[in-house]
Amino acid sequence: MWTRDTAPPSPGVLSPATERATLVLAPNANAWTFEGTNTWVLAEPGSDVCAVIDPGPDDDAHLAAILAAAGTRRVVEVWVTHAHSDHSELARRLAAVTGATLRAANRRLSDRPFADDELIGIGALEVRALWTPGHTGDSFCFSLPAEGSVLTGDTVLGRGSPIVEPGRLGEFFASLDRLSEVLAASGSVLLPGHGPALPDPLPELERRRQARMRRLDQVAQAMADGIDEPEALVDLMYPGLAPDLRDAARISVEASIAHVHTTAHPVPT
């Protein structure tokens, strides 16, 4: 399993993470995607069918790697955690090649949206769909009750904090709460959409919450001091930020501004 203590796999190299989940790292590394998009192949041990989660970029080599990961198993489901192109671009092509059903919450990708708390069978494998808005309004995570793992898309990354759409920061905190509840009983590992697996899930979720709260406190304090323009807040909070990450920082700041305005977030003392 790829964790923070081990080297990432090379793109296209199959990397088993759990008994039921295999990682195929996509070749689309950049400042926003880290090493690339994590494509997951899910199957019950010994099954002749599987599902592919977040097929990633429309790339011939990556398509071939996904099919190699499936092996002799038939791909019967193709799912995307949310509609951003680094997760969904290959989805239609993969579904067409394999004859699989394509599912997504976003109706531009699929006319079979997930239902919150839906239990889905992939052969003998049971998967629970969890609506976890925040990063986007169409974000879903997928829990594998048999082993306690959760595929988190961009709701929880292998490191750092995801972008949260302005107006959805409250939803994001609620989604972290929900994941904590799901994982409290028998959670084993978080399998994110980018970055390494997180084998100690509950403390990781709390760290993500506290990091976001610290940023929110910083924005609230800056706004109380009269600094309320997004670009000025980016300059204040992210000194020395690489230019290709500035848009991401601005979106996160805008989400914090919206949250402060709508919740009367207290200024830290």
Q: How would you describe what is shown here?
A:
- Residues 36-194 form the Metallo-beta-lactamase domain.
- It holds the Pfam family Lactamase_B.
- This protein is α/β, with parallel strands linked by helices and 269 residues long.
- The protein has one domain (14-263): Metallo-beta-lactamase, Chain A (4-Layer Sandwich), CATH 3.60.15.
- The chain has 7 helices and 11 strands.
- It has helices at 60-70, 85-88, 91-98, 169-186, 201-224, 230-237, 246-263, and strands spanning 14-16, 21-25, 38-42, 49-53, 74-79, 101-103, 119-122, 125-131, 140-144, 149-153, 189-192.
- It has a 6-stranded mixed β-sheet, covered by helices on one side. Strands 7-8-9-10-11 form a 5-stranded mixed β-sheet, covered by helices on one side.
- β8 (125-131) and β9 form a beta hairpin.
- The radius of gyration is 19 Å and the shape is globular.
- 47% of the residues are buried.
For the record, the CATH class is Alpha Beta
* Helix content, binned percent: 25-40%
- Mean pLDDT reading: 95
Largest beta sheet: what is the strand line-up?
Answer: 1-2-3-4-5-6
Strand content: 15-25%
Q: Tally the beta strands.
A: 11
Structural class: alpha/beta
> End-to-end span in angstroms?
42 Å
Radius of gyration: 19 Å
Q: H/E order of the elements?
A: EEEEHEHHEEEEEHEHHH
CATH fold naming = Metallo-beta-lactamase, Chain A
Spans where pLDDT lies below 50 across 5 or more residues:
none
Shape: globular
From the coordinates shown, what is the CATH architecture? 4-Layer Sandwich
Multimeric organization: single chain
The largest β sheet comes out as: 6 strands, mixed
Total count of domains: 1
